[in-house]
Amino acid sequence: MQPTREWLEKWKKVKDKLQAPRNLEDYFTLKKIAGEKLDVLNIGTCSIPSGKLVAGDSLVTLLDENLIPYIQETPIGEFPVDICVLTNHDRYAAIRIKFNDNKAVYFENGMKGNEDLEGEIKEGDFYGFGVDAGMASITDIEVQKAYHKFEKKFSELNEDGDLYNDYFWDLLEENAKKFPKYQAEYGDWLNWNIPDTKYTMPICASGWGDGYYPVYFGYDENNNICQVVVHFIDIDLEFSEEK
Fold first, then answer.
1. What Å distances lie between residue 136 and 101, 132, 193, CA to CA?
2. Phi (first) and psi of residue 12, to 5 degrees
3. At 184, phi and psi to the nearest 5?
């Protein structure tokens, strides 16, 4: 889907207000934010074959065959995936795909070109996606299509089956045994290789659980995208003493 010229003009006027509340690179470089200890988990690499990304609830949104990708397009290839962990709470504050080693100087809210930009938009507002099953993913639209194809085949072979309980449950549990750091017994993340493909797609617990979460594209000093972050927990907002 291509955004209309009218929509792009409206977005241009408000896009600065939709930037991330802080430089999200801090989540992956600082040891503490607002007094909360942080650590970083590298969970491997993910596949970006087209540079057109989608994000959402791993078990709901990502199975929508009509899912619209973000208008911001990224480099293509295999890229490392990191999770920022709030260590005192064993919660994931953010997940990032890093395209190169350039430092991000600002983070732009991921947009699809169909958002309603009418009405007042204030600093700190954002557009995002909902999570109802406690797990989220960010991936390439081509990988998402492969996931949808897998799910359709799984459903045909398992008419009474449940994708989470009858498929992902065991994979998450096995992954937690193999990589127990910052994971609950039944698993909080999985870098999933979609069967019969070369694609990998990250799946992880979304912050405090169900909620509404923004995606931010990080730009370097030359205005090129160098990373993308799904922001689950606003640490400053949640833990600032001024709250």
1. 25, 9, 16
2. -55, -35
3. -75, 170
Instruction: Yes or no: say if 194 and 154 are a contact pair by the CB < 8 Å rule.
Output: no
The amino acid occupying position 73 is E
* pLDDT tens, residue by residue, 33-51: 999 999 999 999 999 999 9
133: tokens are: 């099953």
- Rounded CA-CA distance 204/218 in Å is 20
Q: Which residue has the tokens 């990032």?
A: 96
| pLDDT tens sequence across 87-105 | 999 999 999 999 999 999 9
Q: State residue 127 phi and psi, 5-degree precision.
A: -105, 140
Sheet holding 200-205, edge to edge: 53-57, 135-140, 200-205, 189-193
- Spatial separation of the C-alpha atoms in residues 201 and 190, rounded to whole Å: 8
Contact criterion met (CB below 8 Å) for 51 and 154: no
Neighbouring CB atoms inside 10 A of 81's CB total: 21
